[in-house]
Protein 1
Amino acid sequence: MRLRLAGVVKRYNGQTALDGVSLQLSDARSLVLIGPSGGGKSTLLRVLAGLEMPDQGSVEIDGEPLIYSEPNLLRHRRGIGTVFQSFNLFPHLTALENVTLPLIQAHGYEKGPAREYAMELLKRFQLEAHAGKKPFELSGGQQQRVAIVRAVAVKPRFLLFDEPTSALDPEMTAEVLDIIAELRGEGRELVLVTHEMGFARRVADHCLFLSAGKIVESGPAQQLFSEPQTAELQGFLGRVLKY
Amino acid sequence: MAAKPLVVGMELAYPPFEMTDTAGHPDGVSVQLARELGKALGRPIEIRNMAFDGLIPALKTGKIDIIISSMTATEERARSIDFSDPYLSTGLCLLVRKTIPITTIADLDQPGRTVAVKKGTTGHSYAAAHIKEASILVLDKESAAVLEVVQGKADAFIYDQMSTYKNYQRNQATTRAILKPFQTESWAIGIRKGNSDLKGKINRFLADFRRAGGFDRLGDRYLRDEKEAFRRLGFPFFL
Amino acid sequence: MTLRWPDIFFARSKGNGEELPPFGRAVGVVTALLFLSLVFSFAFYRLQYGWDWGAVYRYRRMFLAGWLVTLAISGASLMASLVIGLGAALAQRSSFLPLRYLGKLYIELIRGTPLLVQILVFFYVVADAFGIGNRYLVGALTLALFAGAYISEIIRAGIESVGESQLESARAIGLTRRQTYRFVIYPQVMRRILPPLAGQFASLIKDSSLLSIIAVNEFTLNAQQVNAFTYSTMESYLPLAVGYLALTLPISLLSRYLEGRYHYAS
């Protein structure tokens, strides 16, 4: 995807989450955002997801500017897939119904084809045994994987992941990261916010290090991780990769 | 050594027989009658305020010793409790909505008419037994029943003669009173069955009290206007 | 290892839960009922009450008629109160401010005053001013307004209990506001409010007894009349209690069943 951000500012209750973020990427298949908590990574992801309207600045994706009116944002959101840290699924619906809901309501599928297609995808990711279960009957890892299937099912332009494994134990983290790696391997475009540095390094094409609402460093992943330029990133990586 | 108090049950919602003064203390004809009775028996009096339809159960279970609450001595009640000699004679009358052309109880008992009564009174029993065509409204309180007539929700309120007169006095714009009783009744003091000793003493007291002009004095003190009005209307005063 | 017979009266705690001995529940219930009967029998014996069921049996049709009126008025009020409650809950979420505050005022007024006072005011003041004389209609409406305030709070709590994160999810997958209401909020709210709603219905049935003060011939007033005619207080009021239990007990059981069925972590 081609990304162009110019002077994006976002404030909440007097706090500045994004402090004039500018970026130009012409060919990033997978973009990973890292940085300390509260640094602005999630906010930036949400802006790209069309869930937040910036107070200032502009966003352009694949040459199309993101117009901040509800009908346009709705169309934008329907064209992408977002997975949050937790509580993605609706508790009153089964896994299958969670996947078919956006297909039927937001993408015009008929019930029959939607169910078939959803089952196919669930099968592909070894989740078909859980299709009829409600979220409370699934483990955290299974829930996240179903959420990913839901995001993928709508054939999105790109996928967004906001710390998808932060609420999971190591074993479930691995099973979710496996899926993301698989999707990456298929060539899907994705934007990922994560604390899993090892994974970030493996999966990312381009990496952004955000701190205090600004992009402190930006560059190809390999370069950023092996040769951090700024003292801040060096310090951050030093702490995060310590154990 | 103090004598055992005589517990007298009454519903303090029936002026000027059973009511409270401005400070909330029991007052009225029945209260004074009770006090005089206490003096005659040499026992202190305790007035117990309760709902009218709870008086007989309370007497039966011993919560109160006697009932002085303007209670009519009826055959049916006499099956449950004993009564003293009557001390007052009155009758059932009608408080009627002003614009209704009713003159007798028979006029009232027509389909489409509504009759109000107070729960547990002889008016209530009369209505249950004799009113066949009209619909009956059973209210908890006298004031509610009067309100129903005043607001036109009921065509008439069956109640005793004296209260009917008083209620008419207070609502002359919306009501009128048919004061000729269509059923006469007398009030008596209620006593638990089998208590013939107490009954005898009470009857003796009532005779003495009347002879000594006690009832006349009560009438002058509490019912002066009514006495005068009834004299003008040609009804015998009942106390 | 044999069970000592006193063990049948106790539940044993096992780890995270507890374990009942065989027949434990039956023994517990029967013993409790026996104890209650003993207490009541003793009380009545002390009272030296002369029971006379014949008098009350003569008036059995009055009891039945009153019971049916109570059932009918409660049912009608419940349905009206659902509409009113939903209206008030939505009004409070409206962006049109006068409507929002009208809703809040209604709730504060109704919840802050006794039902008895509301019945008297609505019937003798408000309905009279508007010329509505039918006391059954006014009574049912008063009950509906009363229950509606509580139901609106139940609904509001139900809506708010659907976590923010779910609304976010719905947004993220591209559902419109209306779709979010229809597919995410509404189904969950329905499941969540059914148990407290059932409880509200039971309360409504009991509260309907207050309509007796405006001479609505429901169950309580009819029992009171029988008492007035026959002086059989206990024999009138015991069937009265049983009659209400016959209505509220099934609802309470239904409510408990619904709670169990729709219990899942959110």
Protein 2
Amino acid sequence: MELIYEKSQPGRRAGRVPSYDLPVPEVPAELRREAPPRLPEVPENEIVRHFTALADRNFGIDTGFYPLGSCTMKYNPRVNERVVGLPGFRDLHPLQEDEGAQGALELMWELEQILAEVAGLPAVTLQPAAGSQGELTGLMLMRAAFADRGEPGRNVIITADTAHGTNPASVTMAGFELEKVATTDRGNLDLEDLRAKVDDRTAGLMLTNPSTLGLFDEGIQQVAEIFHSRGALLYYDGANLNAVVGRSRPGDMGFDIVHYNLHKTFSQPHGGGGPGGGPVAVRAEIEPFLPAPAVVREGDAFRLDHDRPKSIGRVRGFAGPFGVFVRSYAFMRAYGPALKDMSDVAVLNANYLLAQLKDVYDLPYDRLCMHEFVLSARSAKREHGVTALDVAKRLMDHGIHPPTIYFPLVVPEALMIEPTETETKERLDEFVDAMRSIAAEAASEPETLKAAPLTRPVRRLDEVKAAKEPVVRHAFDTPTAAARIEAG
Amino acid sequence: MSTAGYLSLTESDREAMLDAIGVDSIDALFEQIPEGVRLGRALDVPEALPEAALVRHLEGLAGRNSDTSRELSFLGMGIYDHYVPAIADTFLSRGEFLTAYTPYQPEMSQGVLQAIFEYQTAICELTGMDVSNASGYDGATVAADACFIARHHTGRTKVVLAETLNPQVRQVVKTYAPGFGMEVVEVPHSGGTTDPGALAAASHDAAAVIFQQPNAFGCLEPAPDLAAAAAEAGALPVAHVDLASLGLLEAPGNYGCAMAIGEGQSIGNYQSYGGPHYGFLAARNQFIRRMPGRIVGETTDLEGKRGFVLTLQTREQHIRREKATSNMTTNQTLLALAGLITLCWLGPEGLRELGETCTALAAYAKERIGLPVAFERPHFKEVAFRTPIPARDVVARAREHGVHPGYALGRDYPGLDDVLLVAVTERRTPADVDRLAEVLAEVTG
């Protein structure tokens, strides 16, 4: 379809801005814009049609089942959108005096209390904008804590070979060195490997538990002991927290610093890529280093405390992504203590799918899983030349969003499946039927899988071409009639 | 099982599913968790609320905030009460956008991919740059991103910040800099703007120089001279700009900047107590492979039809891991979509008119408010005034009259305790400015 720029006609417009008949001062000539930006000139009706057409070409949880592993694509309750739009939240300026923002500060304080209880750690900052920024914040906290202890030489962070890519990337951005630890054939961290690698240069561990394999690390207490006995810290990547809320707490597992993904576990909608929220919880000893400002309660009043001399500083503007807090707080209050049932059902649903699919795909780690599991299309590839990518593309023709593929890296032809807790059994069964029918098709007509998807607005796209000759903005050349027809 | 929350299984579903798994209870599924780290009690959190009670509870909290619908507000300093068109709300509530993940599977995501491509185009047009990412977290973190790019591009370790760069932006750069192995140098203002000579002197051996246009005091910087001063020293000039100003003010790409960054909130996002909003980061083509975050590119499908994909992913954390250009995964796509829709709604004429209305109202405020202007410089939509009593006291007293008169600059700038920063947008009227002038006269008189 056409770009909005290709629908532009000089002289058309949508919005009108009030002018108030005031004299407009001249902008000094050397600062004044010479050529106007080529924004589209389109009437409002056509803007609405354009974005409606784009919406039609997109797939969300509202459209159908979305078992994208590690992304926790659960239903996003609409009441959360209603409350985030209340003028008292939506139209509140972040530099409003604290006494004019008591409701917002109370909400943040209450959210921190619930998050602290879920993690089993006493102090929370809401500031980080997303999980990866939570990771970076956590690593900065480690650096500050060791500097304060007089151990600035601790410069190595250990991550698992199953870690999300954000972990090693955060390690680099925080200025640490990276060391990797292997996973055993049961999917746990290799304790021998760990003992050999943890020493007085080790700052800490970054770990997702359950891991990206969807498996709880059965040796987590020994892992914690190895790090703590050598004076190092443990960081919990909360990407998979949806598996264990109310069942097990990172603080009780021995983690010192934890981030949450409010856009995963606590249902902030993913928005096609964001926004998110990545609060961080810590042990009492690390609390002084948390970002400023912090929300403080004094009797019935709340305020932002900027006077935190040991703080690592500010990691984001203002006090964090407040709209995300409103949605996640509303989500938590809709569950109450039944947040445990949320995780229970997430784990039940994943194990149900695993039980129904493990005879038709390879299962590299044959254990009960937590909230997600990883299958492999290794045999389909060897026997029929059908890859995980082909399976993923064919699922689209069943009206189902594919799982995460080719991750974690330790599993070849990986299909990482996370159903979440909000699906009905009928939806899960439809997925099982689709996956089984694709497995059968891999043997009977592999060409169909290679050609999939057949029912989407576009066929498979040439990603190599996109990267080799990057076209990352519209060129504004007048398109030829042929190009217009081809663009559809 | 409780009836709270958003679960979908019946009791008989659960039994059938446990049977299929071959366990007799949900507890059995959690036996892989070592006993010593199981919680073993109910979570101590507030009781569940049914939807109607939940809304009432949140209305109660929202009602305790003084938002700009109840208080006539002139607060700015980075976040502004601009008008958000109705159609932005319309599309942000569409589930196909709202509830989709990052578009890893392009055949399922052509809608958001094309929208991001259109957004990147709009940001490049406004800033005069060649490439924009799909968004950063906010106007502060994109400044840290620009430092990371400059650090690796130049091999230098110093970053120079104009003191008139938003204080929160400077604070975030200072938080990130040690991890990048960078030191931060700040250049004081001179009469409300940055002196190009002072900036040039500080820029020796710097990787990047970041200044803001219009600056944190609302003044127009001599931006082309600042960019030239930085470039002369071999540092990358980076302009932190307000999208709402770029219908009137020259694009940073047209006065020699290497990168343009900023907070997108003023175009399409509500104030929302500080977030979520979108940061934008645009650069010249030579930096394309050092850009952080997602970038959408155009390509073709099997049949030659145009389509869009996430591209240059070998920069990114899920491929390059510790060698990635950033750790960013989640960004601010939905807020950037609101920005794109708002820019389409304004069009080039509307964006220029928006700027003109803001400057006209700022000039009107200068004329009507009986306080001395702190910095005699051209202004865009914010003007700083000297107050005869501490500006914080002016704020407190004016608020008793139902007017929030602006930001007390002393909160960030020692020595400017008697300076009040007043922001206007097209949502304020000349009558609103008259009211502000009246209240300020009363509380400072």
Protein 3
Amino acid sequence: MTTLASHTEGDTAAARETSRGVSWWPRLRPVLLAVAFPIVLLLIWHFATAGRPGSLIPPPYDVWLELRDLAFGGINDDAYSGTLYIHLLASVSRVYGGFAMALIVALPLGMLIGRVPLIRQLIDPTIQILRPVPVTAWLPLAMIIFGLGPRSAVFLVFLGAFYPILVNTIFGVRSVEPRLFEAAAMLGCRGPAQFFRVVLPAALPSIFTGMRLGLGFAWVVIVVGEMTGVQTGLGAIIMEARQLSRTEIVISGMIVIGVFGFLSDQLVMLIGRRLLAWSPSHG
Amino acid sequence: MAEATVPILEMKNVGKIYAQNGRAIEALRGANLSVRKGEFICLIGASGCGKSTLLRMAAGFEAATHGDNLMWGVPITGPGPSRGMVFQDYGLFPWLNVRDNIGFGPKSRRRSKTEIREISDRFIELVGLKEFADVYPHQLSGGMKQRVAIARVLANDAEIVLMDEPFGALDAMTRERLQDELVEIWSRTGLTVLFVTHSIEEAIFLADRVVVMSPGPGRIEREYRIDLPRPRDIASPEFNEWRRLLSSQLHSHHARKAG
């Protein structure tokens, strides 16, 4: 404040006011905007469904009650009451299990395809042909190979996460600036050592993008994956509730998937910001 | 005693032919260059004169199609820490901060952690980047990046520093400061420098010897020993004399080419 004392009283007051105005509004604005749109959607949903017994879609309040019952029980006291954590845990473990397996296979494979011409020529064409096949098309085959049950679900999640990680890893290790190899070589880092000290760190932003996309796909695929006849999981209760015309459970399941998919993406972003602080496009 | 007689770097009748789209392009023909330890040599010439090719062959990034490239009389077979390169586009590792970029070479040579730390801190200080030790390259200005690139090769005990238009992308003020600093470091450390530039003024300001090259095919045209005392005054009549001489040498060649 002492430095401001030389200014006139009015100047100081104005400066203080604008600085306060500037401090909260830009932070609040995006939050308000982000919340405004779903509120409008909720209102439309509410007025379109509330008080109409013939409506096939339950009003938001019914869904809210169901969501609470699923989570904590004590409202409907049916087979679903208080079971959310079981289904959530099952789905989360399949999402991360399938994702982890995809990571374990796709990372080394992507690096090999990207850096070893022989392996690229051997494997890449096959992968390019398999890649456009949608995960849903694999469903019947997965059920034959892995049987009815969670293994099929995990396999489909694996497939969904596999390609984005693979493709971005290949891209990452192939698009290392040639200059960096020269720089490393003239500093005495040559041959295989370059892989860990140049290729891997340089490819990290790209690999990370692949991981983020892969995890997103894993959440997308989980519902299809849990159509393979498993008893638990968010996808399983959505399909089951559909057959029972319990649409409020279907919508509750959708909301939970949305929220947890979002949270898991935020978590990955957080890790990414830590790891990629050096990258102007990530840090 | 061998050092007094054997040049640190020697290129004997060196030529380079590239194949590009099935056609052979002669980038360099019959180049002879001998660099003594502690010399500051500038290569100057129009684009396509082979000056960068010559530098890259000295670095070991490219092999000559004819002739011999020798360091201390031994053929150069590939890049190595004894010949540090400073690129125009810096070539810093974006995922390493200033300290770790400078420590990259010592780490490659498996020095201990404390040694690496000690070395990088010493060279961070040398190029005046003490406050930026933990900063990543994308947060640095061009001039700072080039300081890091220079510190990086010095920290790796390079005996000869190869510089490929290192200040070409910098603004005039920064360029002049870095030129001053480079001469300062060079005179203090007894380094050998081979410096490619297309600026006549830069060449006269920096070099003990200026090697003028010409294109089509790239070759060494002439060598000049710049005997101006240091520090050099770019506004002095003697400096201007040199400037006139070299620019007429370069331009006569251009005129001949055009004609």
Protein 4
Amino acid sequence: MSKRMNGWTLAAALSAFLSGPSLAADALAKDLTSTIALLGLPCGQVVSAQRLKDNDYIATCSDKNRYRVFVNPEGRVVATKQ
Amino acid sequence: MLRRLEQPFSPVIRIAGLLILSLAAAGCAGMDRAPQAEPTRIEAKQDRAPAPEPEPQQPEAKPEQPVAAKPVQVASKPDAPAVVQPAPKPDAPAVVQPVPPPAAAPAPPSAAPNNQVAAKPEAPAAKPAAKAAASPAPKKEVAAPPAPKPAAPTLDLAALEKRLKETSAIGVFTKLTLKNQVDALLDQFRGFYQGRIKTTLTQLRQPYDQLLMKVLSLLQDSDPPLAREITQSREAIWGILSDPDKFKNL
């Protein structure tokens, strides 16, 4: 019985550990999608994001467009096409 | 010859004489009571005189009808009832006519075509009614302004700003982007009030609406209560932006 409980606990911990990053990635993709849309750039949906540094990402869109999204020294969000 | 002639016709003559006498007696009796009926007409006319004149045709027509009916009444009943009966007829309409106007006051158009005289009292009666109806109307108007007052409490800019910052429905980049766009819009208003930008409030309303639409589209699925509050505060926020004095205090 105790062995079964330990197995379930391990499985839950693993799923949480593995799904956490994916949830964070989804949230980031959604955030970048909204940002690019707010800036009025064509994108569709962001399918993947590569982190360059803090507040600086390369976003790949579903329509194959790629944008660098970052916060400039003035504190403004900027998206430049790559 | 005369005797012969008188003897056979004597019963006929007697009967004829009796008939003539009876007819003459009946005619004299009718002549005695006919003059009594005439004063009733005069009394009726005198009674009608103080009453509204505009309907003389009805009183004139009525006396003509009683003339034909009177002999029957006179022959059957004593004089007193004959005088009383015609009198109430003219009086009754005189009394009744003023009464209907107040009753018909709520619907003047229907009563107006029937009596012009009755319409005159209706007009003053209708005016107070209209005044009475108009007086509660301002109360309603006064009561209406409290309705927008509840909108004022919904507009708590500081709370809204705080909730926008804390909501998890929008990512960091999106929040920053929105903040930049809000600042840009405020710069436009500032330039407009300072005279640096030649535009109108109507033209500034469009970017304001677009920005709110962006915010709402981001919030409506993930944070509906905040989206609802922003929607309710939409006009209040515009009221601040479009008022130079309020905008300075912003």
